[in-house]
TrEMBL record:
Family statement: Belongs to the small GTPase superfamily. Arf family.
Chain sites annotated for binding Mg(2+): 66, 84
Gene3D superfamilies: P-loop containing nucleotide triphosphate hydrolases (3.40.50.300)
UniProt keyword list: Endoplasmic reticulum, ER-Golgi transport, GTP-binding, Lipoprotein, Magnesium, Membrane, Metal-binding, Myristate, Nucleotide-binding, Receptor, Transmembrane, Transmembrane helix, Transport
SMART domains: SAR (SM00178)
Stretches that traverse the bilayer: 27-47
Pfam family, one: SRPRB
PROSITE patterns: ARF
The keyword Signal appears for this protein: no
Name assigned to this protein: Signal recognition particle receptor subunit beta
Source species: Panicum virgatum (Blackwell switchgrass)
GO cellular component: endoplasmic reticulum membrane; Golgi apparatus
Length: 256
């Protein structure tokens, strides 16, 4: 033990003598390089950890959010779950990527129940969102169209979504049913409904308007390409596992 300490002391003295021999500029440059490297590494790790990895599942209740959540996580639909009031909130590696070799970044997915009294929850999760999946029941579309468009309008006019350009995927679900409407039809109808909402909300006295962002181009019929954030429409079925468009959307916006 004593010997070790003596050896260490010897090395310490040798190192000190060596440093004294070096021109001082060289020491300063070396110290500056070390300091700079540490700074860059710290900054890089800060940037990395602040990148959001949260995907928000939204949409009316009954549209299929919970089914989609389980399908993404477990690769099965957990049949028998009733339309729920509780939210699902979990961080996991997508089921479809569990077999992939190498590192896969886990995704944080929040399923926000569509019940009106739970909607404040959205304001809490949207600022952290890397993307929003808006689930629409394509089979029972017509009866829920108006309510669905209103909910969608509320999300698209949020500053946390529009200004931060949070990408959105409108997922036309339940297309395993032959009577389901096509995504082209759903897109057109939702645009029409949002156009109507825009007009009617303009008519309300400005004091009552809670919209944070004006949607679309004044004087032009609304369509999703006018949104500041990117809005895409795709179809699939959570129940039968046809969710690859959702998985792709997640991977595009939560970098592995
Ligand atoms: N045919 C069909 N039914 C589905 C699909 N996804 C969900 N459902 C059904 O729709 C109902 C509501 O689903 P759920 O996930 O609870 O909706 P949530 O209220 O949005 O969470 C359940 O009976 C599901 O089995 C689908 O892709 N196809
Ligand atoms: Mg649910």
């Amino acid at each position: 033990m004593d010997e070790w300490i003596r050896q260490a002391e010897l090395w310490g003295r040798q190192a000190e003598a060596w440093i004294r021999q070096q021109p001082p500029e060289q020491i300063y440059v070396a110290a500056a390089v070390v300091a700079l490297t540490i700074l860059v590494l710290v900054a890089a790790s800060c940037l990395k950890s602040s990148k959001p990895n949260t995907i928000v599942l939204s949409g009316l209740s009954g549209s299929g959010k919970t089914t989609l959540f389980y399908q993404l996580r477990d690769g099965s639909s957990h049949q028998g779950t009733v339309t729920s009031m509780e939210e699902n909130n979990d961080t996991f590696v997508l089921h479809s990527e569990q077999e992939r070799i190498g590192k896969v970044k886990p995704v944080h997915i929040v399923d926000v129940p569509g019940h009106a009294r739970l909607k404040p929850k959205l304001d809490e999760v949207l600022p952290k969102a890397a993307g929003v999946v808006f689930v629409v029941d394509a089979q029972d579309f017509l009866s829920s169209m108006q309510a669905s468009a209103e909910y969608l309008y509320d999300i698209l006019t949020k500053a946390t979504v529009a200004k931060k350009r949070v990408p959105m995927l409108i997922f036309c679900n339940k297309t395993d049913k032959v009577t389901a409407h096509s995504k082209e039809f759903i897109k057109k109808q939702l645009e029409k409904e949002i156009n109507k909402l825009r007009e009617s909300r303009k008519a309300i006295s400005s004091a009552d308007i809670s919209d944070e962002v004006q949607l679309g181009v004044p004087g032009e019929a609304f369509n999703f390409s006018q949104c500041q954030n990117k809005v895409t429409v795709a179809e699939g079925a959570g129940l039968t596992g046809n969710v690859s468009v959702v998985e792709q959307f997640i991977r595009d916006h939560v970098k592995a």
